[in-house]
DNA sequence: TTGTATGCGTTATCAG
DNA sequence: CTGATAACGCATACAA
């Protein structure tokens, strides 16, 4: 049978010990001005009475909740579940707790989540934007409430915010180089929705990487998908009907490539023979596939998550001294 | 330029309106005793001053945080990321917020997380146990603090707690039936660590399912893995060296099967020809594999998560009237 | 070294 | 219908 304790308070400890609550409070917090004996007595009594500080009272008083909010599109992508694991690890070290919100790429949900986080008085926010977010007004709102926010991975274009992200160009360059050195002439790009910063970046870095290799950029070899399964198939079809079918394809990410490879297989196209693939994400399960892509571009979810969290905590520790932070990781080709 | 507002309080509204704080509070909460005009005036002023209630004060006063904690082994398994998405959805409906903790199958971390949650005064906890948890003393501690907990998926053996889980037997039966009807004689089980409830359950339901089919149970066809990649390979080897090599294998879950299929391929064993597989989890990516297992056993992460959350909220709404809850979902074979 | 008094923002009780 | 007052649990400036 378990007792139903109504939680012990500082006052009770004080009463039992016939000292004042403030002394108890100080003793429990190892305040230097309190005598060793008193401190010991208090701690012993606290232990006996099974005292646990009421954090809600402390949060209230200290105007600090030791909680950070993390907003990301979805946990079903391994990229984000890795990132949040890293974030959680850092938070744990710092004795912070993590509030979770999935936006599911819905801008309204993002706003809703942020509003809730704000109501809960989170000390700070880490966020990776959804694919459809255009309105960033919540940034100003958070600023006026003095809640710092650090973006990671999918970050706003504006440099007026703290950002941690991957430089896609380095990975793209390596990808194109890998294809070129293997003799591919017709290299295509299956890109994401043109509204996405991440997509325009891919296009420009694709273009630039081709140029560096002395290749000509042909816009027929760049198609777009809305990132749905159907969209991915349509994009692939567009490439397959070209007079000179590409033999090498860089795609927006590994999820697109999964669909595209499946499609290729269904059409009798030899994956890794007739057609070769590279994409972004470095999805961990390629090693189980019989015909994986040639390579995948690592974007370091853990490092991004960890760094973003560290920046946030630095700001929280030291809000005055820290200016706007921007960390860019290189992306990196990993052969499969 | 954003203003740095120090948050507006009820008192300020009261002062500006020359009425008392309690009236403001009541007006904001649509208390029936407040006149319509006053209510309007208050709300208008609140709007103007950009008033936002200080939730930490409310939490403190109400002794309720509208926060639930979710403890699970890892988000990197799609099973759990699905589950938490469902949980989050329910929580959002009820205006609750979700605190996240990953145990990484470490019992110490579990205790740590629960302690933190308790300090944060979560209103309730949802939990799926790690693979190594034996000590459930935190259950009593939570009970004495009157923090309800609902377990899902990986639940304690004790029926003295709220539990939502899958009945493995139904899926196992369907699996064995599928193998038998396809003419397999030697059916093996690659099970998890024997310390796991989920493993002993699989063994007994495996045994029972064979019996129902009029097959004899042969313990040589049951091997164990510690669920690491190496352990999975070793288990598979044990089966491969048997004089009558099994042609059909049920394994602990799809992750084991991934490793095992990969191993089989490396040994030149024809997956789906020489050897056929079924496992638990219904991992969403089988459709991309060239040689997927014959089938996978769905364990309904969303339904489990949703149901567990609903039970928790029912308890929170109505703690007296609700007795111990136990919901068992059937597991179900899904062909690939 | 310890105690006293005060306030954090809100709501509930009671009185008017 | 509205106002005054107290209380939640804790920390801290100030007093002793």
TrEMBL record, chains A, B:
Q: Taking every annotated instance into account, which residue ranges of this chain make up the domain HTH lacI-type?
A: 8-62
- For whether the record's keyword set contains Transcription, the answer is yes
List the Pfam families.
LacI (PF00356), Peripla_BP_1 (PF00532)
Gene3D superfamilies per the UniProt record, alphabetical:
3.40.50.2300, lambda repressor-like DNA-binding domains
Q: Which GO terms describe its molecular function?
A: DNA binding
Swiss-Prot/TrEMBL keywords: DNA-binding, Transcription, Transcription regulation
Coiled coil feature spans: none
Q: What is this protein called?
A: LacI family DNA-binding transcriptional regulator
What does the organism's lineage look like at the top? Bacteria, Pseudomonadati, Bacteroidota, Sphingobacteriia, Sphingobacteriales
